[in-house]
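input
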Amino acid sequence: MNDRRRLLMIAALGLVGLLALDRLVVAPGLRAWRAQSARLAALREDVNQGTMLADREALLRGRWAEMRDASLPLDPADAEEVVLQAIGRWARGNGVVITDLIPRWRPHPDGHQVLECRASAQGSLVSLARFLHALETDPLPIRLEQFDLAARDDRGQQLTLNARFSGLQVPAAERRGP
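output
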């Protein structure tokens, strides 16, 4: 009977020891391992993104140089005139009627000035899509920031476009060339 008690006591102490080992060593070690694996995965993703960005550096720098060179004129009135002429060109070329246009200057956090325009236009789906394409592909540094379409008739043949886009004005110190 004494040997049996001793054996049960050793088994019980062994199980308590294994439980303590699990709670104090194994479980925290596994949590730390998983956390480290997650950190490594995030770092690998950061490295991959950095590598892709480094690979695209020449393309991005070239695009920025194009935008900087095609920047809106420094005089606000001239800049607004350039944008208004471009909007008129895009509208006429695609059969779109501009019903409302509100330009507004706002500072950008990096020191550039931005001419933000809110425009309303009317036309067919095809003409409005072509208008937006012309806006996006024009050499002027214009970016479409938001737009929505609404039907003006029951069949959806005539639509109204409300868009917000902005043009970049780079300071003279950052421009290259004449």
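quick obs: The radius of gyration is 32 Å.
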